[in-house]
Amino acid sequence: MILNHMVHYSDAALDVVFAALADPTRRAVLTALSEGSQPVTGLANPHPMSLTGFMKHLRVLEDAGLIERSKDGRVVHCTLSAEPLQEAAVWLSRYQQFWTKRLDSLARYLYEQEELSPSTPHSSSAPRSPSPTATTRRRKKSGPTRRIRQR
After folding, report:
1. DSSP single-letter state for residue 36
2. What is residue 45's DSSP assignment?
3. Would you tell me how many other CB atoms lie within 10 Å of the CB of residue 20?
4. Do 78 and 58 meet the contact criterion of CB atoms below 8 Å apart?
5. What is the 3-state secondary structure (H, E, C) of 93-143?
6. Model pTM score
7. What CATH number is given to the structural domain containing 56?
8. Which of 53, 75, 82, 101 could make a disulfide contact with 49, Cβ separation 3.0–4.6 Å?
9. Residue 95 placed within a domain
């Protein structure tokens, strides 16, 4: 999917977003939050780490603008904030367009090469041996039978 509208971003903001996305725990949190707002304890449960360690991951996501926290009584909820992801997607889309053009160019080149020198039809059978005689497999000879002493 290529995003056609222009989103303004700064290099520093993108650095923070990509650094946040570099960790699998943080990506898992964002995936969970794509289903909707969730309490911190529910987000932390699947991850084998202390709550203190998990809170550091949330702080990185919050600093990148990828999540927002809200408190309802004693429960802290997290919500996905997708705008920074959209900015990263726009930045990446330039490279998607670059590689699409390159791959299209390669496909055209290969098609032209095929048209200029059509290859011989492929045989559906296995490749034949250059030798006129058939090759047979030799059975491996087993070594001498040894007696195992029982104790």
Report:
1. -
2. T
3. 23
4. yes
5. HHHHHHHHHHHHHHHHHHHHHHHHCCCCCCCCCCCCCCCCCCCCCCCCCCC
6. 0.59
7. 1.10.10.10
8. 53
9. yes
